[in-house]
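In the current project phase, our protein records have gained a structure token line. A sample record follows, to show the layout:
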Amino acid sequence: MKNYFMNRKDFLSAVVPLTTFTSAFTNQTSSSKTHALKKIPPYLKKGDTIGICCPSGYISLEECQPAIKKMQEWGFDIRVGITVGLRDFTFAGTDEERVKDLQQLMDDRSINAIMLGRGGYGAVRIIDKIDFTEFEKRPKWIIGFSDATVFHCHINHNYGIATLHSKMCNSFPDDFSKADQTQIDSIDSIRQCLVGEKMIYKRLPVVQNRCGEGIGPLVGGNLSIIEQVTGSISNLHTEGKILFIEDVGEYLYKIDGMLWNLKRSKKLDRLKGLIVGEFRIKPDDPGEEFGKTIYQMVMEKVEKYHYPVCFDFPVGHVKENYALKCSVRHKLTVSKSETILKEL
């Protein structure tokens, strides 16, 4: 794919296929509770099946059609779960219905990956009811972001299995002919990850970045959800890892509080790097202005550390939400000329 530089809002998209690598391996230091990568689910080939289900918020079958059509164009078969189009207020069915649907797709050996319909809220209500026995034996890619961060954190903590942080069905454009190139590229990054291409993303420098280089497993997701599961059996462990964070619709003071939670829970202490994605911030109420930027808030929390920090990375609730393989080793290089995140 051609490399090209764009402005701050137009991500420098360089998604380069290198070589595929083994679908499962054991980290030398891993044990049942070291939170190290133990398995990478098998990569997909044409004819494999992707299941779609909604363990969180409601989405209609009609809204899923653009994603279904595109994934079929990629050569995959699609199995639509019972929660697509099912509704119980804001949820895609009752807790029991959402558990049943996800469990069936996880246990079905003919399903090779599971894409979530949308985020919203609800995963934390059912995560402890899911039986991961079959999934641990025969892992498959769990695909999604936002509320799906519950699954990324839980699976990393308990099973050391790689997952895919990326757009979901509700993020595919209705008409690809009218989509801009960064939106198209970010969606295609899902396909590239699923078929086993190693990914490399390049980004123009941001003045607030802190230069440096770090190597480690890539973990993270939605900041609110990371805070939500902190202290639980889904707690995200960050020591020796590259952490990425993003969020949407939160006040600055709320984001500041969540960043303090990261610091006070020692999730920022021994990182190999920090990637700050897109934060769509709720405007301050009149007379309640917070007075700090996201750059200032983050650097305040990490000032005593020396690992690289990258801002404005295209991950989060934006069109340029690129697919990231959670728990897989990456190299983060932040320099004055560019930022590079490279899968190893």
Q: What stands out?
A: The chain has a mean pLDDT of 91.
